[in-house]
Specification:
The complex is a heterotrimer of chains A (323), B (345) and C (338).
Chain A lengths: L5 E13 L4 E13 L3 E5 L6 H8 L7 E10 L2 E2 L5 H7 L4 E5 L12 H12 L4 H16 L15 H13 L5 E5 L7 H18 L2 E5 L3 H7 L2 E6 L2 E7 H6 L4 H7 L40 H5 L5 E3 L4 E3 L6
Parallel strand pairs in A: 3-8, 3-9, 6-7, 7-8
Antiparallel strand pairs in A: 1-2, 1-4, 4-5, 9-10, 10-12, 11-12
Chain B lengths: L11 H7 L9 H8 L13 H7 L2 H19 L34 H37 L1 H16 L2 H11 L5 H11 L2 H15 L2 H8 L4 H9 L4 H24 L10 H10 L8 H29 L1 H5 L3 H10 L8
Helix pairs in contact in B: 4-5, 4-14, 5-6, 5-8, 5-9, 5-12, 5-13, 5-14, 6-9, 7-8, 8-12, 9-12, 10-11, 12-13, 12-14, 13-14
Chain C lengths: L2 H5 L12 E13 L6 E13 L4 E5 L6 H8 L7 E6 L2 E2 L5 H10 E4 L13 H12 L6 H13 L5 H5 L8 H13 L5 E5 L7 H18 L2 E6 L2 H7 L2 E6 L2 E7 H6 L4 H9 L39 H5 L5 E4 L2 E3 L7
Parallel strand pairs in C: 3-8, 3-9, 6-7, 7-8
Antiparallel strand pairs in C: 1-2, 1-4, 4-5, 9-10, 10-12, 11-12
Helix pairs in contact in C: 4-7, 7-8
Chain lengths: 323, 345, 338
């Protein structure tokens, strides 16, 4: 259950990828909020920029990526302006992350207990070694792994359990926001359900917010409260989860929803979206989706629509068709 | 699901305000100007992409220019001299001047002439041995990686033997067994002992390539094995082959110089290495005849440096992270101007 | 049987002779261990499948289910450890020399990774030309290029001439997969094995590829095998579905029947676990998915025992035989639910 207060406010975030002879604009001035206790999803396909946003929020943008503008406000402070010391207090204490191949990012030659304790002691040194170990035991119990296995090595756990360990590490210091970028994509569907249910359970008990990124729209709708749909670096729609499927406002959202064959009902032919996303190095004027949009009008090709709020749907969308 | 009523992220007014926010990002064009990024020069678009990338890489081009200069010097330099590199040309230890542009050695031989003819020999041995070693390494590496099983076991054992044997001492032993090892012998020995590293790298790359589905697809298509090796695997190895070639050449040139320097070469041959040997022998530095030592030394260093620069360029082209790191300075300044610091570099 | 004779056959109905079938196939791989002490992984245990012309069979399963191994065995990348694979009645393990080379043109495969299935250093034209030169010697000179252009058109890559000179990195994932399909079709196969052809593609592109495969399957009367972990696309594309778990086929039948009315506990678990946007996550307390077991030579009984709510002692001892639970619908379970 989310409250009305904003935990994170993203304003005008812009991230570029600096190339040898060109600059590709991966995220193009997006705005959104994540409320306290909310599960906010970022949906979209490859190249839309959703993972780039995740990295930018976590302050993990790597070369050749560059956050060239915008603000990320946490309690009024701009995360993008944090210096090294402030970052240390920010990371893992206030915001932590779980990435897709996190389970492969565990150091194979160090026991898991040390890896968890390492994080705790780096960001909360006042706990001391015993305190860190006690916390590690708590965390294992929290994610449902027998604490007796605390000193095992990563390879002794299955993929699903390793991902749970990564979630445990993300929870170690009781952050207020966890950023999850495709946390279950590499796992089997039954294990995936298990882990997502676990996250839901922990979230309701501990009250943290989640920024959830995945290409699996069905899973996102099940899990998230609100969803932002990104296309080619822009947010084209932000709406409550159910509305994305039952009442999509933007043609891209609608087409995306129609790209998932149902498990019930008659077998009818469905179409995906023809064409390919634009080249991020030279974006077209006007709406980026217009070349592929079945309803494109002249104004769509000239003017890029802004994201506007429509109170009757309690959602935002960026489309000229709605005006 | 309980009803969530909420205020939207931004009202229309907020959005208009944001245009004025100081943290707004520059446009893509402005960003490029601020970071000093220029579009690719038009004439490069007609070249295949990897060649175009190489030609616009400053390190690579410097290396190529220097190397070409040295090669041209070795080829054409002798034409400008009427002296014989192996015969007396003048008085001993004459300082550089009009008659002898780089002076003469203790034996009165013209240094410039020696340098030019010696260059032919040193570079020929170096490139020849380097190429031979790279080719042997390629053949062994690809076979071991592609065929696997017994063949791999046997070849890997061979590679390990060649790698484990200490290079230079082995060459010294072999060279000393042969009467007076001319540059050709040295070159052959270098080729036969220098292919190990190349073979191992190429074997690893072949093994990882082998699991790629386009190889399986070719096999399921009924392609002959030799065709798969030549047309499917080898083209993907080019950068490794080039890398091996360059490094092999450097080590061959340096090894030849070293061998000649310690006197294992043919004393009558003229290479940069033998020049150093004689200079050492004749105590050139102690006698103040710096012109006997410096030219060959600088020539060897320049060759090595040029090849290493080319290698850097090849690395940069194949590894985009390295390429991006060239702009670190400007990106840091961009961030500093906005009161920010880097996330992770 | 020559290729010409096969093409003259009339279009078969679904009950007709299978083009290719797997009969009680076992496949073992050595997992390691010293000479006399090796562990053998049973990747496939008693797998029986049939593919018929103009119809698709979906193989649904998670990691370790053996579905990819099935495809590779049908393509003769591996040989069975037991059981046989028959192509029009002939055991493919006996094929050698010319007959084997011809088999290569009769069964073709499309792979999962659009980035790995094409050689990055060669042009698209190269990828299409090689199979044609190898298996269609009747085409020469200009005819080859004409055929390549026709193939590109048939997979929806237009204008075809533009694509011939391009390299794979210039194409999107969906376009590369179309090239891979064109390559497979260039030798005029009878069987098309598609190993998770859309898993690594963007969601909006997947349907385009599946629709293309459907059209080609009908036009050319291909016998298709569609491997996927996504049971919803299996239902969309294939007429029949077989569900695999730890190397065993546990349920098989018409796709709609399997998804509407699953009878094996694993299939039921799978369908329940698939993301369903029409509901909200409900935490089911106490459920912890255990790992899919590593099936070895010495393993006994039903592999699903460790996770099955209906498991009893007989399940630990013997692998159940297929039980008929509907028309054309079988499940291998001692306690098939009603």
């Amino acid at each position: 259950m989310s409250s009305d207060r904003n935990l994170i406010e993203v304003r005008n975030l812009t991230v570029d990828y600096v190339g040898e002879h060109s600059v590709a604009r991966a995220v193009n001035g997006i705005d959104f909020d994540i409320r306290e206790g909310e599960a906010f999803g970022l949906a979209g396909e490859s190249g839309c920029g959703k993972s780039t946003v995740a990295f930018a929020l976590a302050r993990l943008t790597r070369l050749p990526g560059l956050v060239s503008g915008g603000e990320v406000r946490l309690n009024g402070e701009d995360v993008l302006k944090f210096d090294k010391a402030r970052l240390k207090a920010y990371r893992w204490n206030e915001v932590s992350f779980v990435f897709q191949s996190a389970m492969n990012a565990l150091n194979p030659v160090i026991p898991v207990s040390e890896q968890i304790m390492d994080v705790i002691q780096t960001h909360q040194p006042e706990r001391g070694k015993d305190g860190a170990r006690a916390r590690a035991v708590e965390l294992f119990e929290l994610v449902g792994i027998p604490p007796g296995r605390l000193d095992d090595f990563p390879h002794q756990f299955s993929g699903g359990m390793r991902q749970r360990i990564c979630i445990a590490i993300a929870l170690a210091l009781q952050p207020r926001l966890i950023i999850m970028d495709e946390p279950t994509t590499a796992l089997d569907v039954v294990v995936q359900r298990d882990i997502i249910e676990q996250i839901v359970d922990l979230k309701s008990r501990m009250g943290f917010s989640v920024l959830f990124i995945t290409h699996d729209l069905g899973l996102m709708i099940e899990f998230c409260d609100r969803i932002g749909v990104m296309y080619s670096g822009r947010l084209v729609e932000v709406a409550p989860a159910e509305a994305i499927l039952t009442n999509p406002q933007h043609p891209y959202t609608r087409a995306l929803g129609n790209s998932f064959p149902p498990l019930t009902g008659p077998r009818i032919r469905m179409e995906g979206i023809p064409g390919t996303p634009p080249d991020l190095r030279s974006l077209p004027q006007g709406c980026r989706f217009s070349p592929r949009c079945p309803h494109a009008m002249d104004i769509c090709r000239e003017q890029d629509p802004a994201l506007r709020y429509y109170p009757e749907n309690r959602s935002e969308a960026a489309c000229h068709l709605l005006n | 699901m309980a009803d969530i009523t909420h205020t939207p992220a931004m009202t229309l007014l907020d959005r208009l305000d944001r245009e004025a926010v100081a943290s707004a990002a520059p446009s893509q064009g402005e960003l490029m100007r601020e970071l000093g990024i220029k579009g690719r020069p038009g004439w490069t678009s007609r070249l295949p992409p990897s060649l175009a990338a190489f030609v616009t890489n400053p390190k690579g081009m410097i290396g190529v220019v220097v190397l070409l200069g040295l090669i041209l010097f070795s080829l054409l330099g002798p034409l400008f001299s009427e002296y014989n590199p192996q015969r007396r040309a003048g008085k001993p230890h004459v300082a550089p001047g009009y008659e002898h542009v780089m002076g003469t050695t203790r034996m009165g031989k013209d240094v410039y002439t020696q340098l030019a003819y010696g260059g032919r020999m040193s570079l020929a041995v170096g490139f020849g041995a380097g190429l031979a070693a790279a080719l042997i390494g390629l053949a062994v590496g690809i076979s071991a990686g592609y065929f696997g099983g017994r063949i791999d076991d046997v070849l890997t054992f061979l590679v390990n033997v060649v790698l484990v044997l200490p290079g230079l001492p082995l060459i010294i032993v072999i060279a000393s067994l042969v009467e007076s090892a001319g540059p050709l012998v040295i070159g052959t020995v270098l080729a036969l002992t220098g292919w190990g590293w190349s073979a191992r790298t190429i074997r690893t790359q072949t093994m990882s390539l082998r699991t790629r589905e386009f190889i399986l697809s070719a096999e399921l298509m009924g392609e002959r094995k030799w065709r798969i090796i030549l047309k499917e695997i080898f083209p993907n190895m080019l950068s490794f082959f080039m890398g091996g070639l360059v490094l092999g050449t450097i080590s061959a040139i340096l090894a030849e110089a070293a061998l000649s320097f310690i006197g294992l070469g043919d004393p009558n041959a003229v290479t940069w290495g033998t020049m150093l040997y004689w200079a050492q022998n004749n105590m050139a530095l102690q006698l103040g005849a710096w012109w006997e030592i410096w030219p060959p030394a600088i020539a060897i260093m320049l060759t090595g440096a040029a090849l290493v620069m080319i290698n850097f360029a090849v690395d940069e082209i194949t590894n985009p992270q390295l390429k991006a790191s060239r702009k670190i300075g400007r990106i840091r300044r961009f961030l500093a101007r906005r009161g920010r610091s880097a996330d992770v570099f | 049987m020559s290729l010409a004779e096969l093409e003259a056959r009339p279009v078969l109905t679904s009950n007709a002779d299978p083009v290719i079938e797997m009969d009680e196939v076992h496949k073992e791989f050595v997992l390691g261990g010293a000479f006399l002490n090796q562990t053998f992984l049973r990747a496939l245990s008693g797998v029986s499948l049939k593919l018929t012309r103009g119809r698709a069979l979906a193989l649904v399963g998670e990691s370790g289910s053996g579905k990819s191994t099935c495809a590779r065995m049908l393509a003769r990348a591996y040989e069975p450890s037991a059981g046989s694979i028959r192509f029009h009645g002939d055991d493919i393990a006996t094929f050698k020399g010319q007959r084997l080379q011809r088999y290569r043109s009769e069964v073709q495969m499309v792979f999962q990774d659009p980035f790995g299935s094409l050689n990055p250093t060669q042009s698209i034209g190269y990828h299409l030309e090689r199979p044609i030169r190898l298996h269609r010697p009747e085409l020469k000179g200009k005819a080859i290029e004409a055929e390549m252009l026709a193939l590109l058109e048939s997979v929806g890559l237009r204008p075809a001439a533009d694509y011939l000179k391009r390299r794979p990195h210039e194409l999107s994932g969906g376009q590369r997969q179309r090239v891979a399909i064109a390559r497979a079709l260039s030798v005029r196969p009878q069987v098309l094995l598609a190993d998770e052809p859309t898993s690594m593609l963007d969601v909006s592109v997947r349907l385009g590829i599946l629709n293309l495969l459907e059209d080609l399957k009908q036009q050319r009367q291909l016998a298709a095998l569609y491997i996927t972990h996504d049971i919803a696309t299996a239902r969309y594309f294939a007429e029949e579905t077989a569900v695999m778990y730890a190397g065993h086929v546990v349920e098989q039948g018409p796709s709609q029947e399997i998804t509407d009315n699953p009878r094996h506990p694993y299939t039921q678990l799978l369908i329940e676990a698939v993301p369903n946007p029409n509901r909200k996550i409900a935490v089911v307390p106490g459920r912890r998915a255990t790992d899919i077991p590593l099936w070895t030579r010495s393993s006994r009984g039903c592999p699903f025992v460790s996770r099955c709510p209906r498991a009893t002692s007989v399940c630990k001892e013997t692998m159940p035989k297929p039980v008929s639970v509907g028309p054309g619908h079988t499940a291998r379970c001692h306690h098939v639910a009603s």
